[in-house]
Amino acid sequence: MLKIHSLRMEFRERAVVQDFSLEVEEGEIVSIIGPNGSGKSTILKGVSGMLPCVSGQVCIADQHLAQMTAKHVSQVMCMLCQANISPADMTVQELVGYGRSPHKKWYERLDHKDYEIIAWALDKTGMTGYKDRLMASLSGGEAQRAWLAMALAQRPKLLLLDEPTTYLDIGHQLEVLGLVRQLNQELGLTVVMVLHDLNHASTYSDKVCVIQQGTIERYGRPSEVFTEELIRRVYGVETEIDTRTDSEHPRIHVLHKMK
C-alpha cells in the first residue's frame, strides 16, 4: 500500500529525515514513534506531499506520488494533522461533506450518493446524532470523531494521522484509538500514525517504527520492537516490559530517567 524509499527531507539545508525507507502492507496499522524532534511529523508531511522531499520516492498503491495529481492523491489518501481547524459556524455534517470534494468537479454539488456516503461516515464514527451540531460546540473527542468521519467520507485507502490524541484526556484518547482500530478492521483501512505514548503504540499497532534523528532505529511487531535496551537508548529512560497479558502487545512500565 505504501512504500517509502530513501526519503530525505531538509530544513534550512539541514537533513531532518535521511535515507528513510519503510513499507506498509494493505490493511496494517503502523505507528511511528520517537523522541521530540526526531522527524516523525515531517515524515508524514513528506508522504502526504505537504512538504517537499529533497530525494527519495513515495509510492501509494504502486503509484509514484510525484506523478499523481493533487486530486488523485486526495482520492486515495487523507491526512489529519495535530490541530484541525474549521469555521465556527460549520456543522458536523457540512464538515463531513467536504470529504466528498476530491470526487467532485469544482462546479458539481453533492448528490444523493454523496449524502449516502456522508450518512455512512457519520454512522461509522458514532456522529449521526451530532450532525446538526456546530463544530465549535464539540468536545475534543467529539471533534476528532467528526474529522475522522470527514476522512472516511473521502473514501481513502490510506489514512495518515499526526498525533491524533493530542489535547485529549485519557478517556478520549482511548476512544479515538479504539475507533481507528475498529475502522481498520471493518473497512481494511491502512493507517499510519504518529504517537507519543509507547503503550498506545504497542496496543493499537500491527507494527511500530522507531525513529531517532530522522533515521529508523527499529521496525517490526510491537513484541519485536519494544525492549528495555531500545527504550533506554532512544528515550534515555529505564523501563520494565510486561508480556504476561499479551505477548504480542507488551506493556511498558516507565521506571525513571537515566542519570
Automatic annotation (TrEMBL):
Keywords assigned = ATP-binding, Cell membrane, Ion transport, Iron, Iron transport, Membrane, Nucleotide-binding, Transport
According to its UniProt record, where is this protein located?
A: Cell membrane
The protein's matches in SMART domains, at most eight in alphabetical order, are given as: AAA (SM00382)
The keyword Ribosomal protein belongs to this UniProt entry's keyword annotation: no
The annotated topology with respect to the bilayer is: Peripheral membrane protein
The record's Gene Ontology cellular component field reads:
plasma membrane
Molecular function via GO: ATP binding; ATP hydrolysis activity
Q: Any idea what this protein is called?
A: Iron complex transport system ATP-binding protein
Which organism is this protein's natural source? Paenibacillus aquistagni
Q: What is the lineage of its organism?
A: Bacteria, Bacillati, Bacillota, Bacilli, Bacillales
